[in-house]
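in:
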């Protein structure tokens, strides 16, 4: 029953999070998590080409007539720069790199390119008492939404590595780097957990979580119930048989 509810929740969540949004004039490059991304820019520079996050002077990659330099996780190629190809390559894109970037040539803005990463989906099966680990992927503002029993609630939010949770979750949760731990799950904790970026209104990761129901002497409760029902049916059949025999006499 729990698995069915989880699947229904997943379908519901995918439906409400797949609504088409207006497309902006900014070029968007969309890739899957941990895949290579190429942000295009073509211009012939006489001096220097740079890539920076939009509205920020922090340079993540640059090339001039003699060489190229880039931060870890970003690349530009000098032979391509000399041809006027200023493409910024991100070998393994993660959610922390998901933003709008500006390509500049000789100090002039050439174009803006947005890197977007497809949300991730995971199916998690746990036993009662085990811990649920949710990778938030980023340390900036993020929130965790829990869908269950046709309702939803925010169970935690993170703002620059600072964890905030309601009273009922405070004693059960902890944050290590970007991983949120919910300790000692029970069957009532099954459902859909969504890691969401509230500023971009974008879902980063959807977890469909099922927790095994309680057991009776090592045997699942549903098996015990099924056996009891079968025994009851057999007893009822026997009583009806005896009653028919008695009436015939």
């Amino acid at each position: 029953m729990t698995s069915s509810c989880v699947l229904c929740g997943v379908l519901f969540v995918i439906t409400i999070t797949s609504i088409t949004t207006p497309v902006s004039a900014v070029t968007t490059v969309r890739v899957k998590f941990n895949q290579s991304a190429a942000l295009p820019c073509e211009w012939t520079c006489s001096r220097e080409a740079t890539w920076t996050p939009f509205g920020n002077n922090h340079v993540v990659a640059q090339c001039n007539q003699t060489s190229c330099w880039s931060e870890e996780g970003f690349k530009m190629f000098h032979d391509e720069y000399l041809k006027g190809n200023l493409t910024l390559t991100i070998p393994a894109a993660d959610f922390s790199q998901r933003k709008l970037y500006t390509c500049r040539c000789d100090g002039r803005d050439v174009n803006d390119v947005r890197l977007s990463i497809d949300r991730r989906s995971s199916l998690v099966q746990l036993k009662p008492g085990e811990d649920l680990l949710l990778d938030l992927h980023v340390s900036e503002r993020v929130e965790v939404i829990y869908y269950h029993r046709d309702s939803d609630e925010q169970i935690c939010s993170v703002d620059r590595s600072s964890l905030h949770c309601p009273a009922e979750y405070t004693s059960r949760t902890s944050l290590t780097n970007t991983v949120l731990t919910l300790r000692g799950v029970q069957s009532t904790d099954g459902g859909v957990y969504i890691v969401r970026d509230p500023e971009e209104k974008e879902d980063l990761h959807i977890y469909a979580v099922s927790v095994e129901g309680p057991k009776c002497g090592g045997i699942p409760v549903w098996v015990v119930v099924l056996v009891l029902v079968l025994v009851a049916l057999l007893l009822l059949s026997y009583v009806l048989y005896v009653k028919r025999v008695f009436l015939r006499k």
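note: The first strand starts at residue 27 and ends at 31.
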